[in-house]
């Protein structure tokens, strides 16, 4: 069993997704070997097979570079408020049960021997139909892994209408397709957690710090470099503290907003466009950076100590010095 992350940035990573319950994103429990620590949702590391791109039938010839660029569609504060679920599990004034499971979707990034199925709630479907993505029937059907058929779009719209969601025929998507478009929120969060685990346990923070410290051994620069490292750690902490306060709905979670509407709407846009992967992934990368900074500071302290000891010996103040006779 792995211990919880010690670094503050790593702790912030888990705070971001702590409201996402394990049973809310999985249809069935995966093999026990895939679970490291359910209390922190430390999941195993399924291998990645070829990722199927979800393409719009009308834009199948779109340049790959264009597909990777996301159009910024600002989400007004009112839209953010409407996306936040109330205590009864309904969106705004609509009688939509956001906690109801709409379907279960097999993961796209798993090996065949460890494929997981992720629950897709009505609330998640509603988020995919709303800004910033505004998926059409073709894309939503691909995300939900529905087989293509002659009347597939119509049957999907009819099913959505029964639960109070409207998907107009012929609508155009608001954001270009990326690889993240193909992921449901459960798998996106799973990917973020696995990435966080790898960053925390496998990134060579000590080796990197030792390599870079060897390039800054001038005694006159040690003090200023240490201050730079300390300032960087503080800036990273401020940044991760902010991301940890993001309360965008993910899966079946119903967090209450604590940030100002302006900044929360910006974080919500980023979370919705990445389906919950973005902020935890950034925190995971900052975990690796924080671990490097910690190791670099330890190395700087050793360099300070060695430099001080060397100066003492050079000036004749070291141990074993003979006291001159008067």
TrEMBL record:
Cell compartment(s), UniProt: Nucleus
Pfam families tied to this protein: TF_AP-2
Domain of life: Eukaryota
Entry keywords, A to Z: Activator, DNA-binding, Nucleus, Transcription, Transcription regulation
Any one Gene Ontology cellular component term annotated for this protein: nucleus
Domain (Transcription factor AP-2 C-terminal) ranges: 102-296
Molecular function GO terms recorded: DNA-binding transcription factor activity, RNA polymerase II-specific; RNA polymerase II transcription regulatory region sequence-specific DNA binding
GO biological process: regulation of cell population proliferation
InterPro entries recorded: TF_AP2 (IPR004979), TF_AP2_beta (IPR008122), TF_AP2_C (IPR013854)
Family statement drawn from the similarity comment of this UniProt entry: Belongs to the AP-2 family.
Name of this chain's protein: Transcription factor AP-2 beta
Origin species: Cavia porcellus
